[in-house]
C-alpha cells in the first residue's frame, strides 16, 4: 500500500480586494495633498480597516478550507487515513508467520474458510447496491469478485461436500454482520470494505499465493490458490489506478469521505480480529499436534487430551502425572538414540528370524 499522501488545494486568495484597493487609493490621495487626517477620522479608519481585514481573513480561510475539502481525493484520504491500521495488520503474528512460510495446511484451510464467508457477504451487498450512485462506478464483478474462486479452493481442501463440513469462524462472523449492515443501511460506506479487500488482494495477495504454494507444496497449476488468481485483470497496477480514479470521481461531500475512512479502519480491525483468531488456532494446533499427527499434551489444561491416559481415567492416575508420549517423541528426535533404536530393532528382527529357522 502506498505510504505517501498528497493533498492538492488551491486557495485562490486575492491579495488586494476592491475594498483594500480603495483604502490604499484613499491613503495615497491624502498623502499627495499633504492633508493631515483628523484624529477621530484616523481612529475610525483604523477600526474599519481592522474589521474589514478580519472579515477578509475569515472569508479567505473558509474559501481555502472549502477548496481543500473539494480537492481531497478519496483514494488519497484512504491511503493516509488507514496507514496506521494497515501497518498493524501487517504486523500481526499470523501475517508475519505466513510471509515466512510458517503455516500449516489446516490453518490455511481455516483462513480460506474465513475468506469465503467474508467475500460471500461483500459480493452479495455489492450486487444489491450495484446501481447505487455511491458505489455503481466501482462495480467490477468480472474483474474482482472472489466467491467463485474461493468455492473452488474450498472444494479442493474439503472435498465435494465441503459446505456440510464448515461453518463461519467467530471473528469472520462479526465482519460478515458488519458488511451486511452497511450494505443494507449505509451503502455509501460499502466502498470502504471493497477498497480494503480488493486493493490488498491485487497487491500483497500475489506474494501470499507464492508463499502458500511453496510452504504447503500446493500445485503450481493453481489448485488451492484460485482466490489469488484474477484472470480478467491483465495489469494489476493499471487496474488499481482505474479503481482509484473511479473512487475519486464519486460525488461525495467531505463528511461522507471522512465516514468512509473511518469505516475502512473498522474493516482493518475486523481483518485483524480474524488474523488473531487464526493465530490462536495455530497455537492450539502446534500445542496439541506433532508433525506426524499424534496428539500430545503440554502439561497444561485437560490431561484427558493425552491418549496415554485415556484408559487410566478410572484409576485416578491423572494427578501429578506427565505425558509419556511427549517425552518419548522428544527422545526419538535425537539422531544418536534413533540409531540405537534402529540397531536394536534390527538385532531383534535377526534373533526372531534365527528363532523361527
TrEMBL record:
Residues 23-63 are annotated as: Disordered. The chain crosses the membrane at residues 336-356. Pfam families: Heme_oxygenase (PF01126). One of its GO terms (biological process) is heme oxidation. GO terms for molecular function: heme binding; heme oxygenase (decyclizing) activity; metal ion binding. GO terms for cellular component: plasma membrane. Keywords: Heme, Iron, Membrane, Metal-binding, Oxidoreductase, Repeat, Transmembrane, Transmembrane helix. The keyword rRNA-binding does not apply. Residues 54-63 have a biased composition (Basic and acidic residues). Its EC number is 1.14.14.18. Gene3D superfamilies: Heme oxygenase-like. Belongs to the heme oxygenase family. PANTHER family: HEME OXYGENASE, HEME OXYGENASE 2. This is heme oxygenase (biliverdin-producing).
